[in-house]
């Protein structure tokens, strides 16, 4: 396996784990698709949709040839991740305002978030290299996913979670999977800095998105979405932006599909940040070449509470390649959009709803045309943050749209 620095182009052989280049740039794996018969692969991917109880039944490992061809099947740590629903509820489409909208419900993954797509790849690779101890910095979804896969393979998980700003549901889920939870005063960004400096010394395999194998697994999200839509992607892919790993993985997956001829053109990408944690949006809006980190990010969409997203350079490249845009939305916009997604029967956590809120704003500002079509990636499950649900529906949230449906009755 080979990796290349996304900034200076230096190449590395990946016989051991490496997260960054000597220049400090992030790495990406180089896949060699020469000799791949795309039509034959498409048929194979369609056939695997009917598999059950084999590693290739997973919505990640279905695409193994494009993700980690060298990993033996026995090395895979998998729980049937992927295979999530793609829905088109009319209420959400009319709320967003575009002609056709699909919601990719990534919260239906085994640990309840999109992180499972990447984590099955990272933990499988770590196990293949002989690691038993895994680590991450997290706002809660990465930690739950890492803890689940580490437990499945009989390994240890050490997770670094900021104190006070992470949904308790996620912390409890992580603890329940058996992880050692290290809480600290600070943000996700501090945890990443700590692991970048200490993981090697401590013998820890890092499952964050600075790990290029995580990104390889995560790119299957767009493979699966494209396959769900018979390889006809809509005009726009809209997704929330925190650490921006989902944007870099989306970009890599789109490049693969285009290069292989699976899709005839690249859709445009819209990245939505929460106003209180929007360093990437501010950089793009200003046309700046460097990201200025936010020292104290703050949003109710806790998964987006990130001031220094490690993948910002990769994400900027994706926007350049896809003629993409960014937008920031308020917490109020996010929670109102979430109430609409929840009431449609699909449901999601607050950070995911940022995608719908952002789409609505982009349509109302004419940046996305009303006649265009979009997929919103809903990154996490409604039950990931029940405090947000309670505050909105029972605590007189920003616009207690549905609160009047809660009756207290005497029977
Ligand atoms: N919201 C994320 C932040 C971590 O991002 P990662 O892409 O580095 O794993 C979380 O759930 O922890």
UniProtKB/TrEMBL annotation:
Cofactor section: pyridoxal 5'-phosphate
Residues recorded with modification N6-(pyridoxal phosphate)lysine: 115
Keywords: Amino-acid biosynthesis, Lyase, Pyridoxal phosphate, Threonine biosynthesis
EC code(s) of this entry: 4.2.3.1
GO process annotations (BP): isoleucine biosynthetic process; L-serine catabolic process; L-threonine catabolic process; threonine biosynthetic process
Pathway(s) per entry: Amino-acid biosynthesis; L-threonine biosynthesis; L-threonine from L-aspartate: step 5/5
Catalytic activity: O-phospho-L-homoserine + H2O = L-threonine + phosphate
MF (Gene Ontology): L-serine ammonia-lyase activity; threonine deaminase activity; threonine synthase activity
Positions with a binding annotation for pyridoxal 5'-phosphate: 141, 242-246, 379
Enzyme class, spelled out: lyase
The organism's place on the tree of life at top rank: Bacteria
Domain Tryptophan synthase beta chain-like PALP: 77-380
Matching Pfam families: PALP
Cited CDD domains: Thr-synth_1
This protein's record includes keyword Amino-acid biosynthesis: yes
Family: Belongs to the threonine synthase family.
Function: Catalyzes the gamma-elimination of phosphate from L-phosphohomoserine and the beta-addition of water to produce L-threonine.
Protein name from the UniProt record: Threonine synthase
Native organism: Paenibacillus aurantius
Upper taxonomic lineage: Bacteria, Bacillati, Bacillota, Bacilli, Bacillales
């Amino acid at each position: 396996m080979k990796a290349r620095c996304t900034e200076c182009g230096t190449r590395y052989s990946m016989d051991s784990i490496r997260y960054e280049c000597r220049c400090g740039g992030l790495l990406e794996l180089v896949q060699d698709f020469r000799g791949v018969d795309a039509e034959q692969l498409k048929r194979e991917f369609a056939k695997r949709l009917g598999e059950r109880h084999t590693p290739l039944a997973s919505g990640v490992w279905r695409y193994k040839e494009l993700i980690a061809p060298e990993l033996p099947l026995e090395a895979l740590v998998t729980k049937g991740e992927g295979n999530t629903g793609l829905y088109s509820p009319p209420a959400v489409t009319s709320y967003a305002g575009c002609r056709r909208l699909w919601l990719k419900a990534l919260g239906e993954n085994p640990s309840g978030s999109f992180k499972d797509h990447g984590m099955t790849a990272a933990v499988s690779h770590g196990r293949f290299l002989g690691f038993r101890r895994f680590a991450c910095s997290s706002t809660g979804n990465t930690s739950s996913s890492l803890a689940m896969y580490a437990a499945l393979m009989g390994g240890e998980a050490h997770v670094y979670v900021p104190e006070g700003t992470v949904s308790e549901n996620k912390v409890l889920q992580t603890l329940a999977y058996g992880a050692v939870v290290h809480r600290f005063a600070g943000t996700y960004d501090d945890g990443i800095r700590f692991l970048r400096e200490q993981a090697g010394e401590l013998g820890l395999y890092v499952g964050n998105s600075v790990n290029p194998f995580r990104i390889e697994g995560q790119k299957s999200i767009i493979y699966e979405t494209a396959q769900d839509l018979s390889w006809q992607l809509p005009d726009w892919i809209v997704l929330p932006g925190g650490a921006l790993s989902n944007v870099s993985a989306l970009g890599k997956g789109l490049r693969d599909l285009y290069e292989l001829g699976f899709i005839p053109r690249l859709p445009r990408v819209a990245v939505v940040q929460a106003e209180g944690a929007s360093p990437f949006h501010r950089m793009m809006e200003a046309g700046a070449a460097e990201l200025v980190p936010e020292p104290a990010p703050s949003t109710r969409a806790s998964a987006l509470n990130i001031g220094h997203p490690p993948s910002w350079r990769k994400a900027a490249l994706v926007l350049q390649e896809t003629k993409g845009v960014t937008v920031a939305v308020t917490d109020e916009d996010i929670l109102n959009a979430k109430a609409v997604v929840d009431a449609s029967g699909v449901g999601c956590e607050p950070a995911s709803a940022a995608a719908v809120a952002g789409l609505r704003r982009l349509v109302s500002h004419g940046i996305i045309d009303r006649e265009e079509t979009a997929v919103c990636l809903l990154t996490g499950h409604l039950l990931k943050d029940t405090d947000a649900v309670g505050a909105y529906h029972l605590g007189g949230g920003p616009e207690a749209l549905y609160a009047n449906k809660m009756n207290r009755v005497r029977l």
